[in-house]
Write a structure and sequence with these properties.
The chain is of the alpha/beta class and 337 residues long. The protein contains 10 helices and 13 strands. α1 links the parallel β1 and β2. It binds NADP nicotinamide-adenine-dinucleotide phosphate and ligand F7E.
């Protein structure tokens, strides 16, 4: 019998890569998608079934992390072996504008999915998408023992979800693991996160269809990895006999400015001619520096990052140049966006 997985947030960056990984392993994958007025399944539309795994399948279901009933019904119907809770209002800056909604979906949503698992009496393992944003103002390097000091409604909601996951593990003996993932990027990254905003702009400026790129804080330090490798870590966590919490990161600190320079360098343009700052993109309270220590994941999961900063920038700039070319030629946009 193939294993069955349920993914919330399947239409997002990580959901799409995780779906491909699990289909490649022969899983039957069920995804929760929310209703929207425009199509939101672009990232998973062209996922091919794996030739070696004819039993693998992908099914999508309407539901919402704010709607408990939809979660209970879906869990009863699907009876998953593994649940990956990736759904969230995941934008930090936006969370200051919609703090209540962020708390509801990103925070309480995690409780709803775990409580729904209990109500539906499903015997499964759970992955909770925790975040380095929980560390916030705690000085780097950050590891599993670093105390949390969140700096946004998003970070606060993720801390609530993190401790709720630990509590379901302790109280109900559920196999729930937190992946504390540092920033991870790809050509499928949402266009209003800084890396993708930069690489999309670089391609457009090179093509002569954009004049300027407006950014906020160029001094923020982040630890950027490559999303397809990070979803592998999620899967590895659920294959462990005991549930646990793991930091997933590269350990390599880079500023937003360094990302800008590397991306413009790749197309031979001088970034200073094109980049301006706009206070609209600053945050009421910023997270200055996130640098992860992934030693525990290396030792216990055998996980190490392979794609580091220069390759990540190259992959993203190349993909956005190709995407622009495809759009200009009227070609079908490729799945590896
Ligand atoms: P993403 O691209 O923003 O995807 C978020 C997903 O959540 C989308 O599928 C979205 O659906 C869905 N969603 C939003 N509100 C929902 C609701 N009310 N009910 C059900 N689904 C809802 O995020 P990502 O980068 O893939 O990240 C995946 C998870 O990891 C998130 O929980 C994020 O907070 C967390 N995380 C991300 C990073 C990172 O660097 N990427 C690092 C640490 C943790 P639509 O497509 O309809 O919007
Ligand atoms: O910002 C600065 C900004 O929005 C990175 C989410 O996936 O990772 C992500 O959160 C840095 C910040 O990601 C702009 O102030 C400058 O210091 O790409 P970001 P994030 O806030 O780190 C964590 C781990 C998550 O869990 C989240 O879900 O870049 N920055 N100028 C800018 N950021 C944006 N978005 N736009 C700018 O114009």
């Amino acid at each position: 019998m193939p294993k069955v997985a349920l993914i919330t947030g399947i239409t997002g960056q990580d959901g799409s890569y995780l779906t491909e990984l699990l289909i490649g392993k022969g899983y039957v994958v069920h995804g929760l998608k929310r209703r929207s007025s425009s199509f939101n399944t672009e990232r998973i539309e062209r996922i091919d079934l794996h030739p070696r795994h004819p039993e693998a399948h992908l099914f999508l279901h309407y539901g919402d992390l704010s709607d408990m009933g939809s979660l209970v019904h879906l869990l009863r119907q699907v009876q998953p072996d593994e649940v990956y809770n990736l759904g969230a209002q995941s934008h930090v800056r936006v969370s200051f504008d919609v703090p209540g909604y962020t708390a509801d979906v990103t925070g309480l949503g995690a409780v709803r999915i775990m409580e729904a698992i209990r109500i539906a009496e499903v015997d499964c393992r759970v992955y909770q998408a925790s975040s380095s944003e929980m560390f916030g103002a705690a000085p780097p390097p950050q590891n599993e023992f670093t105390p949390f000091h969140p700096r946004s409604p998003y970070g606060c909601a993720k801390v609530f979800a993190y401790w709720s996951a630990v509590n379901y593990r302790e109280a109900w003996k559920m196999h729930v693991s937190n992946g504390i993932l540092f920033n991870h990027e790809s050509p499928r990254r949402g266009e209003n996160f800084v890396t993708r905003k930069i690489t999309r702009a670089v391609a457009r400026i090179e093509a002569g269809i954009q004049d300027k790129l407006y950014l906020g804080n160029l001094d923020a330090v982040r630890d950027w990895g490559y999303a397809p490798e990070y979803v592998e870590a999620m899967w590895l966590m659920l294959q462990q006999p005991q549930p646990d919490d793991f930091v997933i990161a590269t350990g390599e600190p880079r500023t937003v400015r360094e990302f800008v320079v590397a991306a413009f360098d790749q197309v031979g343009l001088d970034w200073e001619q094109y980049v301006d700052t706009d206070p609209a993109y600053l945050r009421p309270s910023e997270v200055d520096s996130l640098i992860g220590d992934p030693s525990k994941a290396r030792q216990k999961l055998g996980w190490t990052p392979k794609t580091l900063f220069p390759d990540l920038v190259r992959i993203m700039v190349d993909a956005d140049r190709q995407l622009l070319e495809d759009e200009r030629m009227g070609r079908l946009v490729r799945m590896d966006r």
